[in-house]
Task: structure prediction
Amino acid sequence: MRFSDIIGNKEVINALRQMADSGRVPHAILFYENDGCGAFALATAFVQYLNCRDHRDADSCGECPSCRQMSKLIHPDLHFVFPVNKGPKSSDDKPTSESYIKYWRELACSNPYFTEADLQKAIGIESKNGLIAVAEARNLLTKLSLSSVSDGYKAVIFYLPEKMNQETANRLLKLVEEPPEKTLFLFITHSPENVLQTIFSRCQSIRVMPLSKEEKARVRAMVPAQEDQEMTAFMDIFSDVMTSLISGDLLGAYESMENISAGESREKQKAFCIFVSDCLRNIFLLQQNLHQLVCLPDENMTEFFKKTASACSNAFCRKVFPELDKAVALIDRNVSSKIVFTDLVNRMFVSIK
Ligand SMILES: [Zn+2]
Result:
C-alpha cells in the first residue's frame, strides 16, 4: 500500500511522512479510528514507506522487493496481532493470530478498510468474542528477538489492543517500553478508553478522521456486497424502531427490535449497537446544525435523518450513547439478548421526547 492509494486522511499521511523523513519515528503509535476508516491502510503504508529504499514523489516506490512483500503483507519484518478465538478455520486448541494469518492476509489485501465484523467473519468466529491472549505476547517476544531480515524497520501491527487482558499487557509492556532498535508498534484501536493505561501512556496517539461522504463511497466500492446487505438490514431495523418510538408505539419498537435480538449471533448484535451509535452521531450532528459533518449515502436517508433529528429531544443521543456501550458489554457477558434489547428500547423510549 502506498500513501497515494489511501482514501482520505491527508493530514495523517503528512504527519507520518514527516516522522519518517525526519528520522523521528516514535517506537509506539496508537491510531484511533472509527471502525473501518482506514487506520490499517495508514499503518501499512507507513511501514512500507519506512522500509522502501527508492522513495518516489514523497511516497514508497511500490516496486522494490520490500514494497512488493509489504503490499502482499508477507514481508518477514512485518508482524500482525489481532483478536482470535477457537473456530472451525483453525484446529489449534489455543489459537493465536498465526493460526489465522492466511485469512487475515486475504481479507486485508482485498479490503484494507475492513471492519472488526469483517475480520470476525473472515476468520470464522462470528459468534464469539475475539481475544488477544498471553500466547500472543510470547510469540511476539520470540519474533522480535530475531534480527531484522532486511536491515529496515521491524513492525508489529497490533489490531484492537483493547482486546488484550492484563496478563498479555504485562508481558508486552517491557517490549513496548524498550523495544529492540528499529522496532515499531502500531496499535489500531476503536475505543481508546478501553486500552490498558500502561500501554496507552507509552504511545503517541494519532486520530484517524472519519471519512467524508465521497470518501466513504470510494471505500464502499471495494467492500463486498454482503456488507452492504447487512448495513441495509440494520438500517431497516433502526428506522422502524425510531419511527415507532417517535409515534409513541412502544410495542411496535419492541417488535422491530426483535429482528436483531432473536436469532442473530452476538457479534451481529454488537455490530448493530455500533451501527446505531453511528446513526445517533448523525442525529446529534444534525441537531447541532453541523450538517457538513454528516455523511449519508443518499437523499432518502438524509431526509429520514433530518426528520428524526427534529423529532427527538436534544438530550436523546447523549442519553442513549452510554446505553449502547452498556448493551455491547452485556452481550459480551452473555446476558440474554432479549433482555438487553428490551431494556435498550425502554431507555430510548423514555429519552426520545
Ligand atoms: Zn519500494
